[in-house]
# Entry
Amino acid sequence: MTKQEELNQQKSELINDLVATSTVMDEVWRYHPDNPNKKDIIKEYNILKKIHNDIEQELNELDKVGN
# Structure
């Protein structure tokens, strides 16, 4: 690998890291206390728990049908 290819690879990895960091920051901002439109973390968590439980229940029902 040439020096230029190594630099390009390093730059690509850093850009990917930057995009990933920005994505996480955007998600965290949804719940940040300084965000005037922040989401209620407890409410959002409870919604996710309900979805999780519904999926588990549906999987269990599919297992019963398949057996």
Remarks:
- The helical segments are 3-29, 41-66.
- The mean pLDDT is 96.
- The chain has two domains: 1-30, 39-67.
